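Sequence only, no structure available. Ideas?
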Amino acid sequence: MSKPDESASRPATIRETLANREYAALFTAQAQSSLGDNVARAAVVALVYRQTNSPILSAAAFAVSYLPWLGVGALLAAWAERHPYRRTMIGCDLLRAAIMMVLAAFPGLPTALIILLLFGNALLSPPFDASRSALMPQLLQGERYVTAITLNRTTGQVSLIAGYALGALLASINGSAALLINGLTFIVSAGLIALVIKERQPALKAEEHTNLLREAADGYRVVFSSPVMRAIALVVFCGVCFGVVPEGLAAAWAAHLAGHSDTFGFGVIITAAAAGFVLGSALVTWLLRPQRRVALIRPMAIVTPLALVPALLDPSLPVIVVMTLLAGASLAITLPAGNGLFVQVLPPAYRARAFGVMQSGVHLLQGGAILFTGWLATFYPLPEVVGYFGIAGLGATVLIIAAWPAKATIADAIAANKVRVAATQYAADHSGIDDLSEVTIDLARVPVPPRRRRPSPGPSARREPPMADPAERTVDLTERTAELGGLPPAPPSQPARHS
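Reply:
I predicted one. Tokens follow.
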């Protein structure tokens, strides 16, 4: 494992982040395969519609890529925890390449078979994405990790716009070419990972296997039983639920303004959503100090639904664009900051499963929000639906951030996880140690957040004896043997405080 990022007083640059050779390969693999995915998705939708002239079947071809995250995504993420991440990603890429090549080679396949193959392709996304997410904290720490998250998300937004545009163009010329390109991007991705990424042991050892259902449930238990991770998860879920509405209703909103189907208005709103996310990502990563970034999680979480409320006034297209930009930017500020904090308190053995929990929740809430608001808009005026939905989101967000854990609780969770990671790493480096209760950790080498300075005691106050040199202090992990593979230790009993 690489050393923690010591540049905590400033954001990490793109150059510093990409200096990690393994991450650079992983980023390149993701960027080009993500572009290929979006090219193929647009081409397949056009291909199915051309064959069937059915909006429902073409929509099913588009939506099928999200279905695994709504059902078996958490199970597939738990499965990925059992196997080396590198091997899992290579296998998923090669299988997806084979599926795309079949679709490209036989463009006249029945629609039902095309959708079935697309579903099989989609089933490979959860284990691949979970493995990549769990591997990243092993490659990068601190500010480099936050910059990497922003790079991934920003690249995803850019590839979404560019991929749809290129896919639509190729679909009008040769739809099979788009599928062939996607298959080739998976082969390139597998090659980069095989050549550059080092083999690492799976997070869940063979003797720790139970069954996938129980292991997937452990992922939910870890996330939602921790006050810090639970608070971050709820903020993220609430943000994506309301931040996706302008994008999801873009076509209907543009038609409402023009009185008929309006491709231009639809494109402007969609582009504004992506542009807002890119601008917010740049702001939070490279223009804000790390300490300030975490402090903005709660206020930016409020801004996301608040940006929807002006829809009650039935605004013009320029105002809608500003609202969409604001919602996207505030969501982009919340997500990387929350992700960076989340990974600091997440036990390493649960990274893939926790990612499965988060990603499943994000897809479920995004799809549910779009379907729910779209259904409401068939009975009520669309501006009112969006505006009142924003008010509901504002109330839900205020309740969530009111229960945000105190700074001391967050600091204790981070410190406890650092001890756990250090002990696990020590045991991995000294393979002869089977019982972690025999391990002692030198606290001088485990960074712990500084505590607040207390006021100087009065002359009559009882003085405590000076503490021993930190280099001489050790922690006996006898009582932490069970904890090292499970939940973070509970914080010391103290009155609840909320900052």
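The two ends are 33 Å apart (CA to CA).
Hope that gets you unstuck.
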